Every structure is written in C-alpha cells, then in structure tokens.
Amino acid sequence: MVRSNPRLRVADLPALAALARDRGALLVVDNTFATPYHAQPLKQGAHLVVESLTKFLSGHHQVLLGGVVGARDVVEPLRQVAVRAGLVPNPWACWLGVEGVRTLAVRLERASATAWRLARFLQAHPKVRAVHYPGLAHHPDHPVANRVLERGYGAMLSFELPPERAAVNRFLRSLKRVRLVLSLGGVETTLSHPATSSHRFLSEEEREALGLHEGFLRLSVGLEDPEDLEAEFSEALEAL
C-alpha cells in the first residue's frame, strides 16, 4: 500500500519497484488512500495498481466498485477471470463511478488541505495522545511521503485517545455531525474504530502489538468547513 491502514505509513515505491525488478516479481499497489490525485504508482515502477471506486474515486458512498490498472498483458488475465466469475458491474454503477471521478481533484484538494489542518489541530490538543499523518514532520515516513506523494498528503489520518472504550464512547457520543462509519472517502467526514471493525479479527495482544488500542480512531476527512470540524472535535474532546 502507498499508505497503510490505519497507521498511515507510506511505502517507498521506487525502492520496492527496484527490489521487485531484481527479484523478477510484480509490484502490486493498493492506492485506495492516496488515490491517483496524490500518487501514481505506475510511474514509480509498479506493475499493477488497485483502486477502490467505492471510496474516494466515486466519493459519495453510492457504488461498490473496484479497478485494476496496468499494462494490457498484465491486466488481461485478471480481466478474463473477472468476466468468467461474473465480477462485472452493471452500467448504472459504472456511470455513477465515472461521474464521481469527474470531481476527484476538486474534492481531494479541499479534503487534503482540511486533513492537514485537523492533524495539526489534534496534535496540539492536550487530550490527544498521538496523531498519525504523513504531512506532520514527526511522522516516521514524512521524508518518503515528500518523495512519493503529490499535491498534499491525503484526506486520511488517525489519532489516539486514552486507551479506554469508555473514553472513546464519550467522545463519539459528543459528536453531532461526524459519524462512525465502516467505509471512507465520502464527502462527509467520518470516523472508524479499527479495534472493533477492520482489525477486530486480531487478538487483543496482536492489536496492542500494532498499536491499535481501544483509543485508536481513523478519520476520513470530507468537505465540511474546517472551522466547523475543529469546533466539533474540540467540544467532543472536552467530554474525555
């Protein structure tokens, strides 16, 4: 992945591409978080790129679509399998996906700028233990992000509250507009709780080893006014 879920680590694509070439392997990149607006892995040596149109590309939580991009000779075997298995979306879903992609650049420009602002706001708040966003100088992959990503650092970030379910529940219940949603990438700002969603299949020990304690939250930033979002998070944090 260009940006891992949910700790927002950034992969060094040119280095991975060189390693793949040396070993005769194919490099496949999941570009869901970065999207083509922030990263174009094919130009950095990847052979295949997986994109989720369900999320940022369509941007409105209206379709379930995915895509694979690469050279024809690499993609064609995958296309044949998809056709034979019936993994072909209907025309209406395709139309909705394409219509959403038309506004991708405008949406990501706004959402990424707001995410960077929120990351700095949360980092400075005394009730927030840590913020994970590659645009912040303290992020372990900040230098890599400056080389791999373009036009900003994306609309996804994660932050840590006290590692207690009760504290997280008080925070979530104090929010008025931002909702807990399993998906991401829409025009609305949403939160997810990895310990009880994307990483619930791991044991508590395994989650702790990854740093995904009960207070870890992932934020997908939408198109709301950034001042409104800051005000809402500030009020909710006071409930801790």
From TrEMBL:
The record's listing under InterPro entries reads: Cys/Met-Metab_PyrdxlP-dep_enz, PyrdxlP-dep_Trfase, PyrdxlP-dep_Trfase_major, PyrdxlP-dep_Trfase_small
Say yes or no: keyword Transferase present.
Answer: no
Cofactors named for this entry: pyridoxal 5'-phosphate
- Cite the Gene3D superfamilies for this sequence: Aspartate Aminotransferase, domain 1, Type I PLP-dependent aspartate aminotransferase-like (Major domain)
Mind listing the UniProt keywords for this protein, alphabetically? Answer: Pyridoxal phosphate
Q: Does the keyword Cytoplasm apply?
A: no
Similarity comment: family membership: Belongs to the trans-sulfuration enzymes family.
Recorded hits in PANTHER family, A to Z, give: TRANS-SULFURATION ENZYME FAMILY MEMBER
Q: Output this protein's name.
A: Methionine gamma-lyase
